[in-house]
Amino acid sequence: MLAALLVTAVLMQDAMPLRLVLPVGAILLVLAIRPRSSTAVGIALIAIPMVGLLRRVTAGPEAFVPDDPLAVLPIVAAMPALAVAFTTGRTVRRTPGLNLFLAYVLWLLLTSLLSVGGSLTTQLTGLALAIVPAGVGYLVAAGRIPAVERLTTHTLIALPLLVGSYAVVQFFQPPAWDLAWLRSVGNNFISVGVPEPQGFRVWGTMESPLTAATYLGLGLLALLVVAVARRNAPGRVLRTIGCALGAVLLLAALLLTSVRTVLFALPLLLAVMVLLDLIPGARRYGVLFLVVVVGGTTVGVGTLGLGPEGSDPDRYAISSISEDTSFQERVDLLPAFLAAATNPIGTGAGSSGVAKRLTEDGAARGIDNGYLTLVVEGGLIRLVLFLGLIGIAIVRAARTARRNPRDPTALLGITALLYFGLLQTSADVISNSLSIVFWIFLGVAIRGTSGQDTASLVPAGRRARYVDTEAPTTQIPVVRVPAARTRYRLLPARSSLRPIVGR
Predict the structure, then answer these.
(1) Contact 451, 150 (CB under 8 A)
(2) End-to-end Cα spacing for the chain
(3) Distance CA 493, CA 497 (A)
(4) Please, are residues 105 and 131 in contact by the beta-carbon 8 Å criterion?
(5) CB-CB contact of 48 with 74 (8 Å)
(6) What is the pLDDT of residues 276-305, one digit of tens each?
(7) What are the CB-based long-range contacts (under 8 Å, 24+) for 186-192?
(8) Smaller CB count within 10 Å for the chain: N or C?
């Protein structure tokens, strides 16, 4: 473990900018104290919502540094997890979709090596933003990075509340560094607004209104699954009140971002989950959250006027979409799929997305369709691999949620996958720092079990061996305690365990 950390540090030493030395040093210190791959992933999850604020506070009077290396701090934090898991771990689960997952990661690497788009810095940044989160997801799916799904769920419950609180304060009483940042990047973020109180779309502690809105939306969904999974547990009243207050705060902050992509995606996602009964035994909660989101948006925008001064409330009406400029631009992108398909390997990861904006002074603009971005950067093969991968993951996540209706992590897994899948139609949300969350849940879904599955199977005073029929080629490790020898098979029905006649 320590050898992997030293290798990571040595490889980064020559090219490491000064503003990364202290944060990376702190990361390596924590990893040296607690040398686990899950620790590196946990640090990355905590860094995701905080790195934007750290950049602005430490960037001096202008609150902005072109080509700022701190922008990729969560990716840097997750890199040791890859090194440790690959060098010390071994694949403990062979599940459907794992080989497809590996093919996707290898295709990312191949197309990046053959990349012809952008500078070397852009290519390396794009490769890191795409392959590190996907690599973490693959290792989670293979069982090499254990016990990260619950940590991910906990961070999505707690940290969005901090981001939302900061965003509300930012709108009414913006700190000096936020105003300075907006003045510095005004030419590249004209649609954000003007640097004065209540004159701009908030971005909280993050990098932009879109990333902030995406994260706040995840927080809303996390509160939903907590309310559903723990609806019969002790403390139900206090938990319901807490979730309701948290939802109001997050929805208010979400409205202040004025990101319609997320505001439209959330009701659509909730409606789909209710119609397909993807919230096991709790359709009424889905309907309730759907009413809260739609009603809260209507009241917040139409009555309270939550949004930058001068913004038109009609822009949130569905009837106005056909006349919206940004919507028309997205529709006009559809023929570009055919043009992009002519390049079988694409232009390389990051050549048309976030990496260009990070390495070209923020002047580059990404494609307003994440699926088209996949085709442009990795050819049709990357798109087909991704669609196959997320399709398998959604099916397996739905099965896991039905087997574990009281496990928030299982419910949040299927919810997060559908959420990111919807947002991908508007922007590339699977190839940036925040995408670590997506790839973790995708890895958990491919793995096919939640943490509750293995924890609830051990009968006291028995020597048991369990077989998961959802993945017949995979066996949960033997649990040995001094008692009679018994074998059980986990059935898909709710009847839990049944003895197998034999040894």
Answers:
(1) yes
(2) 40
(3) 9
(4) yes
(5) yes
(6) 888 776 788 788 888 888 888 888 776 666
(7) 188/361, 188/362, 188/363, 189/362
(8) C
